[in-house]
Specification:
mainly beta; 8-stranded antiparallel beta sheet; about 45% strand
Length: about 140
Amino acid sequence: MTLDDIEALLPNGFHDTALKVVTIDYANREAKLSLEIWMADCDAVSGTNREAYRQAELSLSGLVFWVCEPPSAGYPYDVKGKVRIDIGSVETLTTPPSPALPSTPMGCFVNWIYVGAWNAFIYVAAHDAKLTWLD
């Protein structure tokens, strides 16, 4: 399964997801992301359904690379609080990633993770993605 496959199964994709913890295990080529995924019922006028979040762990196996841009100057990246992200396929970007990304082997996916508080991207390539609900 790819990140795009998982995104298609979520009501709002990864939009407005909160990133809590990232663990990268380079020896085993794995990354784990602890997330709060926005499960909003956008048809709800108000109440808990409109701002519903679920705890999940996103596991990436067969990790090829994890490239993180530095935060943009002027953004308050060092303020405590939720770190909002969105995730999409690199092919959807109108501007090519900077820095240039390494080439990838056949059978892997390449995605961006946009970190709003940084106004910067993380680029990730892996062979498989799995989402596990924790609540």
